Amino acid sequence: MAFEELKENTEEIQKEAQSYIDNTAKYYKLRAFKLAMKSTTMILKFALIAITLTMVLFFCSIAAAFAIGNAIGSYALGFLIIAGFYLVTTGLLFLIKDKIVEGPILEKFSEIFFND
């Protein structure tokens, strides 16, 4: 009798352990899906905002180039001045890129990953 009870208990423990493993696997799949979706939606929102801002910047740059060109009498010089401004801005951004890009992105993804 004791052997039968022990056998039944062992089978029950195996079933419970398998159930625990299955539920843990499902939990981690769900958690990975949630993290992937949060990351994807954040990247999509950022891309949409970036595209919109790029369009605004593009048209403002053209308007500024025409305005400067009209003021100094040469549209070509107006466009060259705007191009020079962007060249200087790009150089400055290249020098400080790690502080601007890497830190905030790492912080945001760490917040998403570790706070859920």
Compact description:
This protein has helices at residues 2-72, 75-95, 97-114. By secondary structure, it is an all-alpha fold.
Name a few traits of the molecule.
mainly alpha; 116 residues
Account of the 3D structure:
It is a single chain. The protein has helices spanning 2-72, 75-95, 97-114. The protein has 116 residues and is an all-alpha fold. It is built from 3 helices and no strands.
Principal-axis shape equals rod-shaped
Q: What's the N-to-C terminus distance?
A: 49 Å
How many E-type strands? 0
Biggest β-sheet description? none
What is the chain-wise order of helices and strands?
Answer: HHH
The percent range for helix content is: over 70%
Average pLDDT metric: 87
- Poorly predicted spans: none
Tally of alpha and pi helices:
3
Structural class: mainly alpha
Rg over CA atoms:
29 Å
Strand portion: under 5%
Present the secondary structure layout.
Layout lengths: L1 H71 L2 H21 L1 H18 L2
